[in-house]
Specification:
- The chain is an alpha+beta fold.
- It has ten helices and six strands; from the N terminus they run H-H-E-E-H-H-H-H-E-E-H-H-H-H-E-E.
- The two termini are about 50 Å apart.
- A four-stranded antiparallel beta sheet has the order 1-2-3-4, with no helix packed on it.
- Helix 2 (about 35-55) runs antiparallel to helix 3 and helix 3 (about 100-170) runs antiparallel to helix 8.
- The relative contact order is 0.15.
- It has a domain at about 25-60 and about 100-265 and about 310-450: Outer membrane efflux proteins (OEP) (Up-down Bundle), CATH 1.20.1600.
- A hairpin with an 8-residue loop joins strand 3 (about 265-280) and strand 4.
């Protein structure tokens, strides 16, 4: 069962004043188009597509030609008739008729590995989106934590000033002043730590999404998740792309065993050749000579003894197949574990949100009561400071629980194979079509075909101010392309790019 997760930024989900804020949908669209891990995996899949054409080429006709000019440098005895210069040219055409199934199984293995590569691309896509969601939510959480700690520092500064004023009139003791000052310094220390964590989260956001975070809008609600852990595991085992990829790799390894077995069988091919020879200098009875020859026939190669090479290759292929089958089980275990962990983390965080929401409300009431009681002398300054700290702790835990719940929910979607661009309904351009490149290259017969020089698609995040005085890698060496004509939907043509001025 595949649910469509359409990330829509509705007015109800946004806070006041965030109409121009960056949304999670925009962040994921930027990640999809410019993250180097994702764009690099697309190029890796293109290389896998080419393996199909390589495998098919072994079963196609092979045509070659030779030409040469030769001159005799020395002759003796009855051959002593003077130096001769001859021109020769020839052409050979061969076509394999039978090769023990080697080509057929190589093609099958290559196609199966293409399917595995597509599943791996899906897996990388989901993993990168999960990183982007975590980076987005980390920035929101850490900004909230910095704001909470900043407010706390301002409150503690006011408390310290009030405590000092009351100490001056003899209403409080020096101990009260010392407690207030110590709590203020602790608050400032926590604020500095929170600011450092925010800087780190913004750097991660910049790394994953491709640009520095601006004002971020609250994330939209997650789609409905499975009601039970077992249901989530069933969906994951059916759709998880990592599991699909390793399963297809195991099938391809089985074809490799058949390829190795074919090395013990004979091969048959038909051969047509033609040769032309023309004597350019030197004569026989005053006459130059020239001639041509054309032959056709069948050629068979019957292996009788190869020093144990076929058996060794078969054993090696069987061992690789066994390794792949074991990896299927290992990946299956990992998928089950990841799914159950994500489900448990989501449920735990959701319950933590409920508890911390109640805790924040209760601590707000408690702080008001402690302040009122302290004003009439039944509570001490330390009681007020403790109540303020308890409120701050519960607020930070609430913000953290909201972040953890959202990230765990998205991790669960990813484990179930439902965190890809198609599931997220991303805008901002056509989705990448892996079939387009496959159709273009898999059946290509042209020896001279090639793609244009590759220009990186991923955006760089190095600003001019961050470049060293003598950089090893400069923007001139690795240009940042500006896409001016994105490909149409359902195609994989190279977009038009404009290079920066030299």
């Amino acid at each position: 069962m595949i649910r469509k997760f359409v990330i829509a930024t509705t007015a109800a989900s946004l806070l006041a004043g965030t109409a121009s804020a960056d949304t999670l949908r925009e962040a994921l669209a930027s990640t999809y188009s410019s993250n180097p891990t994702l764009t690099g995996q697309r190029e890796s899949l293109k290389a896998t597509d080419a393996d199909v054409a390589i495998a098919k080429a072994a079963g196609r006709p092979q045509l070659s030609a030779t030409a040469g000019i030769n001159r005799d440098l020395s002759r003796s005895g009855i051959l002593e008739t003077g130096g001769k210069t001859t021109f020769s040219a020839g052409a050979d055409l061969s076509y394999p008729l039978f090769n023990g199934g080697r080509v057929k199984n190589n093609v099958r293995a290559a196609k199966t590995r293409v399917e595995a590569g597509r599943a791996t691309l899906r897996a990388v896509e989901g993993d990168v989106f999960t990183q982007a969601v975590a980076a987005y939510m980390d920035v929101i959480r850490d900004r909230a934590v910095v704001e909470l700690n900043g407010n706390n520092v301002r409150v503690l500064e006011t408390n310290l000033q009030a405590t000092r004023d009351r100490f001056e009139i003899g209403d409080l003791t020096r101990t009260d002043v010392a407690q207030s000052e110590a709590r203020l310094q602790l608050g400032r220390s926590r604020l500095v730590i929170a600011q450092g964590q925010l800087t780190a989260s913004e750097a991660t956001y910049r790394q994953v999404i491709g640009h520095a975070p601006g004002q971020l809008a609250p994330p939209p609600p997650l789609p409905p998740l499975p009601a039970t852990e077992d249901e989530a595991v069933r969906i994951a085992l059916a759709n998880n792309p990592d599991l699909v990829a390793v399963q297809r790799q195991a099938v391809a390894a089985g074809y490799d065993v058949r390829v190795a077995e074919s090395t013990r069988l004979p091969t048959v091919s038909t051969v047509v050749s033609g040769t032309y020879v023309n004597e350019l200098s030197g004569t026989i009875a005053g006459q130059k000579s020239q001639g041509s020859q054309t032959t056709a026939g069948l050629s068979a190669n019957i292996p009788i003894f190869q020093g144990g090479l076929p058996a060794a290759r078969i054993r090696q292929a069987e061992a690789f197949e066994g390794q792949a089958l074991e990896q299927v089980i290992g990946t299956e275990r990992a998928v089950v574990s990841t799914t159950r962990a994500a489900f448990a983390n989501y449920e735990a965080s959701a319950k933590a949100i409920q508890s911390q929401t109640v805790a924040v409300s209760a601590n707000e009431l408690a702080l008001e009561g402690v302040r009122a009681e302290q004003s009439v002398g039944t509570r001490t300054v330390l009681d007020v400071l403790d109540a303020e700290q308890e409120l701050l702790n519960s607020q930070v835990l609430l913000v953290t629980a909201r972040r953890d719940a959202y990230v765990a929910g998205f991790q669960l979607l990813n484990a179930m194979g439902q965190a890809e661009a198609e599931d997220l309904g991303l805008d901002g351009g056509p989705l990448y079509d892996p079939l387009g490149n496959y159709r273009r290259v898999a059946d290509n017969w042209n020896d001279w075909a090639r793609d244009p020089t590759y220009v990186p698609v991923a955006t760089r995040t190095v600003s001019p101010a961050e470049l060293p005085p003598n950089p090893i890698v400069t923007p001139d060496l690795i240009p940042t392309p500006v896409v001016t004509n994105p490909p149409a939907a359902g195609t994989t043509s190279t977009p038009s790019v404009t290079q920066p001025p030299q």
